[in-house]
Specification:
The chain has seven helices and no strands. With 175 residues, the protein is mostly helical. The chain folds into two domains: 88 residues; 79 residues, Orthogonal Bundle (Arc Repressor Mutant, subunit A), CATH 1.10.10. Helix 1 runs antiparallel to helix 2, helix 4 crosses helix 6 and helix 5 crosses helix 6. The radius of gyration is 32 Å and the shape is elongated. The protein starts with a helix and ends in a 6-residue tail after the last helix.
Length: 175
């Protein structure tokens, strides 16, 4: 919707500029016929020429920006398509990982609210983002996080993430 609105707005602006140029040319011709001075006519021709150049530059910059935007959209769609293909190909593996993490949360005795917060912590969301997503306060989320760390025996978020994903990501390559 916005893209269509932008195109209409850009075309409208260019048409108004072209209309201005056309009217200015007609005015210059009319003044030439009525015997206006050369200096006045020269000034009006200069203004018309400058406006035409400015309009051309404006049109060119819009075209360039549109091309860049379309390229970026195309690249993002390509990445999204690749991600969806990867996700579909590995869906059972991802479901198994999710189930395994959920089972470990149960083993630790996490409440449903704590499990929700733990999953969001694993997704690397901030306390503020988690609070907004869950409709609670940051203080509540911090309390849940503290309980998660106490029940799991892990000192913090980094260790919680490493607990589940360190082995999945493989060993570190020596540098």
């Amino acid at each position: 919707m916005t893209n269509l609105y932008d195109r209409i707005l850009k075309k409208g602006a260019l048409y108004l500029i072209l209309l201005f140029l056309l009217l200015a040319i007609v005015d210059i011709f009319r003044e030439y016929v009525s015997g206006e001075s050369i200096s006045h006519l020269s000034f009006e021709v200069f203004v018309c020429f400058a406006t035409a150049l400015w309009s051309l530059g404006l049109w060119w910059s819009w075209k360039t920006a549109d091309r860049k935007l379309n390229h970026e959209i195309s690249e993002r769609l390509k990445l999204n398509k690749e991600y969806l293909e990867w996700k579909n190909k590995n869906l059972s593996l991802l479901n198994d990982i999710h189930s395994g993490i959920n089972a470990q949360f149960s083993t630790w005795g996490l409440t449903p609210a704590e499990s929700d917060v733990a999953f969001l912590l694993l997704k690397r969301d901030s306390f503020k983002e988690i609070a907004e997503f869950r409709g609670s306060t940051e203080k509540t989320v911090r309390h849940h996080a503290l309980k998660i760390y106490q029940k799991s025996g892990l000192p913090g978020r980094t260790e919680l993430f490493a607990y589940f994903f360190e082995d999945i990501l493989g060993p570190r390559n020596p540098s």
